[in-house]
Fold this sequence. Notes:
The chain folds into two domains: 204 residues, Rossmann fold (3-Layer(aba) Sandwich), CATH 3.40.50.2000; 165 residues, 3-Layer(aba) Sandwich (Rossmann fold). The relative contact order is 0.12. Helix 1 packs across helix 17, helix 3 packs across helix 5 and helix 10 packs across helix 15. The chain is 47% helix and 13% strand. With 394 residues, it is an alpha/beta fold. It has 17 helices and twelve strands. The termini are close together.
Amino acid sequence: MRADxxxxxxxxxxxxxxxxxxxxxxxxxxxRVTVLNSxxxxxxxxxxxxxxxxGSHYFPDRYRGVARETLAWAIRSPGAWxxxxxxxxxxxxxxxxxxxxxxxxxxxxxxxxxxxxxxxGTTPATVAMLTSWLCGRPYSFTLHAYDLFLPNPLLVxxxxxxxxxxxxSEFNLAYLRTAYPGxxxxxxxxxxxxxxxxxxxxxxxxxxxxxxxxxxxxxxTPFKGHDVLLAALARLRAQGLQLELILVGDGELxxxxxxxxxxxxxxxxxxxxxxxxxxxxxxxxARADVFVLSAVVTAEGRRDGIPVALMEAMATGVPVVSCRVxxxxxxxxxxxxxxxxxxxxxxxxxxxxxxxxxxHALRLxxxxxxxxxxxxxxDLRRSATRMKELFETT
Length: 394
């Protein structure tokens, strides 16, 4: 591919912040990026996400023109068309995917897209693969967390046909090799998520106030471990240490967690801030004394990958406390760039929160090492450059 080649990113709305950042960073390397949506996008209260949404492609409203495009591809590429029909029938997938991929194959040809890259190894990767079958362009995809740790029966087939596969951590790579054997492993590359170090500048170190402020940015969903965090906060209060906790994010557990905070007697110390824009998140980070993400692994195997929220806090100069889950220890090096507890360990989490909030010498050491580590390994520009290299040479 040329240095200014055209890549089609197949994404699944709503766009997580890290996808928005990645698309913008890859564009900044000189590549042209067009977004193709596996579902219809919607307003996210985020200027950058909405900008990408407004310039993207999605399934035409009321199927306008789709039947004509599908028939045209059936006539032009009957072998690929039949292969897709057989694939959908064999795996009990909706016929809508055939029409969607026929539409996107037309977009690819019309706009001169030279490579398709899917943001997840689930439906977006399926769309990229089937579109590739029709139009002949190569495809690739990235594996994050749920698309790897939860059952993904079509993953090996998608990986076998991909030009390359990326994943976000060495932990993920090792897991992939064990859980999904196949001949494609030599085409898998670790490309880490990253943060814009210009946006998240290092603030001046400071002593916490009388009541230290803890901030957690995460969806209110089971694998984020908010129940463990609330229990740890209650334990610290019982021991005489008052902390203020701000939970940024929304989700299906909000009502249950509010009831938990009330039953633990800490409702007055917990603020449920809801979903916020990236700029609003940065405002909370600016006043945070500790950032905490109490990740766990659910009974179904759901877990985090490497949360970008941790990177943002570390780049800003907020001491972080988290748990030994998936790739998190590759970012939060225990006692070096942050503090780690075992997942689900209330006492361990409480102890580390107390240390991060009250030990000033420790805080200074963690802050300096964390910023250096993020600069060396989780710089968004470096990750985007690596993606560009893969698009051009693989």
